[in-house]
Every structure is written in C-alpha cells, then in structure tokens.
Specification:
Layout lengths: L1 H13 L3 H18 L9 H20 L13 H4 L5 H10 L4 H12 L4 H8 L3 H18 L14
Helix pairs in contact: 1-2, 1-3, 2-3, 6-8, 7-8
C-alpha cells in the first residue's frame, strides 16, 4: 500500500531505529482504524494520518524520556558519505539522524512533507520562532554533514 510505504519512510526519518519506526507505524495504523469514524473527509486522510504519526512519535519521546542520546559525531566520514551502492537517500537519512530530535522533526515536516512553518508549529505545538530556528539550524548542520554532495567552487580568474 502506498500510504504504508510513505508512513514507514516518514517515521524512519524521524527515528534513529527502523524497528521503532515500524512499531510506531503499526500503532498509527491501529489508531487510524480505531478513529476512522472521526475522519471528516476522505480527502483529508493523508494529513490526518500524518498528524497521527507525529502524535505517536511525540508520545513515544515523552514516554521514553530519552532526551540525551549517545553523542554522535558532528561530521560523517567521507567514506560513509560516498558509498555509491547505498546512494543519496541513505546519506540523507544518516545525516538526518545526527540532528537533534526537534530539528529533525521540523526539517522532515518542512522539506519531506512540504508543510509551512505555521503548519509545523500547529502540528507540533512548538512556537513559530522555535520552528524557524530548528529549520535554520538543522539545515545548516545538514549542509555540513552532506558537504560531499555540494559542487566544487569554481575559481574565476580575472585578467
């Protein structure tokens, strides 16, 4: 199912653990099944499912109270970044896993899900200024982590 693939991919970007992401996806689908009567419009299903997924991930974070994970390196080794068989998607997901949880959430919602800053603020209950800061800071860190994908600077000689 297309929605299942999307949901698992979305949650895997938020979690550092693919098994946890799959467990959360199952919880979301179960919650969706139980709450299907509250869905007001079939056209709103995607956004409604995304909101359930965000809530499931935030609830898991609150329950686990894991705020300080093992520190991760600020930069990924170039050898990890350039494995051709793995590809850009793996590198992006790996780089996302190095962001703080709130930064990762805001980046994924903004760039993968196409949500506006206001929509992210409403969905996560984070203040708008905080959402903007997380996106700005997370984007800066991602640029550093994914520097191997940036085109080399061209030097222009005048003369």
């Amino acid at each position: 199912c297309r929605r299942e693939v999307w949901l698992r991919s979305f949650l895997r970007r938020l979690c550092r653990d693919p098994t946890l992401a799959d467990d959360l996806a199952q919880q979301v689908f179960l919650q969706a099944w139980r709450s299907l009567a509250t869905l007001k419009s079939v056209a709103a299903f995607g956004g409604w499912l995304r909101r359930l997924a965000i809530n499931a991930w935030l609830a898991h974070r609150r329950k686990s109270a894991v705020t300080a994970l093992d520190p991760l390196p600020q930069e990924l080794p170039v050898s990890v970044m350039l494995v051709p068989a793995v590809g850009e998607r793996f590198d992006l997901d790996r780089a996302l896993s190095h962001l703080a949880q709130d930064e990762r959430l805001c980046i994924v919602l903004a760039y993968s899900e196409g949500m506006s800053h206001g929509e992210i603020s409403a969905a996560t209950s984070l203040p708008l200024g905080t959402v903007k800061s997380h996106i700005r800071r997370g984007t800066r860190r991602l640029r550093g982590l994914l520097h191997a994908y940036q085109p080399p600077e061209e030097h222009v000689h005048v003369g």
